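Today's session is about reading a structure prediction critically. Students often jump straight to the picture, but the first step is always the sequence itself: look for stretches that repeat, for charged clusters, for runs of hydrophobic residues. Only then move on to the predicted structure, which in these notes is written as discrete structure tokens rather than atom positions. Here is the chain we will use throughout the hour.
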Amino acid sequence: MFNDDNIVRRVVGGLLDPLVRIGGAAAAFVLPPDPTIIFSSVLAFVRSIEQNEIASKTTSTCLVGEHWGYRDSDIDRKLPTKQLLQAAGSIGVYRLQVVNGVTPREMAIAVLGVAPDMPDDQLAETLRKKGHMLTLPALEDLVERREGREDGCLAEMGEYDEHSYLAFVEDNGGGVALIFLHRIAMRWATTWQSRIGAFDDSDRWFSGNYLLVRNPDVSAG
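Below is the predicted structure for this chain, in token form.
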């Protein structure tokens, strides 16, 4: 976050530049009205991954076992007790572009190409209707394939690469939550940490992280 509450900034070509000063109005990021500008400024398309149908699974048994380390206990509290079957489809991998970060809400606006003032409940419903959310077993599948060194799965393939992935998932109230997976690579072991955040969280996610979007319908590539 910025220390100067009077600076309103905008995205221009993936960078945050000073735009105007207004007394007492704190803002770290103002989305432009053109969805094309929003998308290309916030997200950069990396690749598309095809994924087969993923079976349903109890939430408490997800993101545990081989390859998995720390698991946020809030995952079981904030998500449905069962992860539903996910139909076959494609997963878009996008790299976050904004140096000073974007919130989950701003990511959703960029993915959907909608007006910046769309209410959270409408954003969640649109993400659901377009099939952009993933299930935890689907994320497990991608991690397994990546650790199996499948060519073209996720963003990086180096043995010691450390990177983070974000994905929208359905919470236990029918809304949206954000899952965060982080790969920690050491010479003697590789583990993935998993955490959960609220859709309306003010935390900002920085450039270099990746967003996974099921059934992507826009591309900046």
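Discussion point for the tutorial: The chain has one domain: 33-214.
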